[in-house]
Amino acid sequence: MNRNVLLLEPNYKNKFPPIGLMKLATYFRMRGDNVVFYKGDLKEFLINDITSDCVAKLSEIDNSINWKLRSDKIASYIKTRKTIFLDQINLGESESMPLLIPWVNYYKDFYHKKKYLEHPKWDWVCVTTLFTFYWDITIETILFAKSLVKDSRHLMVGGVLASLQPKEIEDATGVKPHCGVLLKDGIDEDNEYIIDELPLDYSILDEIDYIYVDSGAFFSYTTRGCIRKCPFCAVPTLEPYFRSYIPLKERIDQTRRLYGDQQNLLLMDNNVLASEELPQIIKDIRSCGFVPGAKYVEPNQYHLAVRNLRLGINDRAYIRKCWKLLQQLNDWKSLNAETRTEIYDVRKQYGLIQHITCTKEAIISTYPYFAKFFEKKYAKQKGRLRYIDFNQGVDARLFNEERVSLLAQISVRPLRIAFDDIKTEAAYVKAIKLSHQHGMKDFSNYLLYNFKDRPEDLYYRMRVNVMLCEKLDVSIYSFPMKYHPIRDEHSHDRDYIGVHWNRKYIRAVQAILNATKGKIGRGVSFFEKAFGANTEEFMELLIMPETFLLFRFFFEHIGYTAKWREAMAALSEDERAEALEIVYKNNFTNIDELTHNEKIRYALSFYKNYRGDIANHNSELYKMKQEYEAQIKSKKD
């Protein structure tokens, strides 16, 4: 008997799709189960799911009417209980109306009286987890899942947070999580598959509205684990054993056949250069088409979606994908007004205006009409360069001629080289220079801060990258990344402050990064304006009032920044120490209560939040800002 399987990702923000759930989707489909993936508002999921059951029941009673086309009205009635929506369902059109009304009201009550708790429909529910600071929304999702599964033993909770803090999750939810990667155990006794090595089910990503930033790529691993045991890293817990080779090509080929080609290859290996099988890994990557200069031609997405609908691969996903693609026709500038009107009329006739009323049959029957538009669009493609990204970074300490020459054989961009500790500077610089000698020019890295480092260390590492860009004529995009503990205090929030840091320093770095859009690239003058020409200027920026950092040029122009500097310089050594102790706490709501010293109070007065004044049309600061921007615009013109 086919099982109903629900895969849930908490509704937090994340860049990458849930790879573990994509593997589980493949596994359960191979077993013949009905699989549903969801990420979003949990109440909306319930309403849509109950609406679907209601439509099925109405169709069972009277299949002469396409109740699916009235799903939006049914959902509105279930959600609001307003009779206006009940009237709009037009149950009176059916001769079976006396039988239909009780069932519609049954499903309305099923939602509002929470009868779904008494009659759970899901045989298996799997919840993925991510960062520890997403604790609250993750626990909420697990408890929601627990209420929907028939047997709590068939509720699987896995992923990063689950593996790092299994006891805490069990204490909070009563559910014992699955730790580490997915192997053979944990689901079916007769399972013959290593789930972690199964191809990903990309179709589930089309079941939801959420758009992952880094979608449009093949996601995979060629190794597992890491030879390092860095104290700030979760990998030793998540993947405690280093596996030096996992074959790649067969999984990529299967993804291409089922879900279409993807532009890029994103490998999640934690330390690929540590593998003795690196030559074979590079050979696999090249055999998948990721060689320098290779181009990607996007397959006809509408044709692919309708094909998979016909094959019955994932109706829920491909109905939604076809609907989204049809929605995009509205934005095509190549279509004239008459054609747009005709397209709208066809969509309206077949119930393809709203997703909830779309049917598989309507999409397939209208395919000949809509296909010609998409065929013309996809025929005009010129192709785009495709790249490979070792997204978790590579280890600078393992660089040598042989390994770099292998990396140069694939279209890697950017090459992410870890630079988390100033102590690895020599190895890091050597790795950049060696890569540059082999023709690579695009680099990226995360710069960990707020761990055991000092603010000066962060500045120095950023400057190393900027100067390497200048010297070698390469691009290195640095992304300073604030450290959060993965266990114990503050692991469930973002409030951890490192031993050499304080709240003001943290906020200042974040304010500067807001101006640079979170990254530091090429350009010495830009870097020095943003972060200072030396460590002394950088340390001054860290204690500068936040609004002066956010609107740097404006406050310098009107002289406020200079007045703040004068006020700080006027303090004695003891007064400055007292002032800085207050500044470091970054709380300026009641300045007069923070000190009795008038000189310190004056210096602290510059720390008020000026953003309200800047936005207030009646304030003097607003008028000054408008005049300043007008001057800037006139100079540009």
What does this protein look like?
- This protein is an alpha/beta fold and 637 residues long.
- Helices cover 49% and strands 8% of the residues.
- The chain has 30 helices and 12 strands.
- The protein has a 4-stranded parallel β-sheet with strand order 2-1-3-4, with helices on both faces. A 3-stranded parallel β-sheet has the order 5-6-9, with no helix packed on it. Strands 10-11-12 form a 3-stranded parallel β-sheet, with helices on one face.
- Helix 19 links the parallel strand 11 (442-449) and strand 12.
- 34% of the residues are buried.
- The mean pLDDT is 95.
Write the layout of secondary structure elements.
Blueprint: E1 4-8, H1 19-30, E2 34-38, H2 42-61, H3 71-80, H4 83-88, H5 97-112, E3 124-129, H6 135-148, E4 155-159, H7 160-164, H8 166-173, E5 217-220, H9 235-238, H10 249-259, E6 264-267, H11 278-287, E7 295-296, H12 301-311, H13 315-328, H14 337-349, H15 360-365, H16 367-379, E8 384-385, E9 388-390, H17 401-407, E10 415-416, H18 425-437, E11 442-449, H19 455-472, E12 475-482, H20 503-515, H21 524-531, H22 535-543, H23 546-550, H24 552-557, H25 560-569, H26 573-585, H27 591-594, H28 598-605, H29 611-615, H30 620-636
Parallel strand pairs: 1-2, 1-3, 3-4, 5-6, 6-9, 10-11, 11-12
Antiparallel strand pairs: 7-8
Helix pairs in contact: 2-3, 2-5, 3-5, 12-13, 12-16, 18-19, 26-28
Can you give me a brief rundown of this structure?
The chain is an alpha/beta fold and 637 residues long.
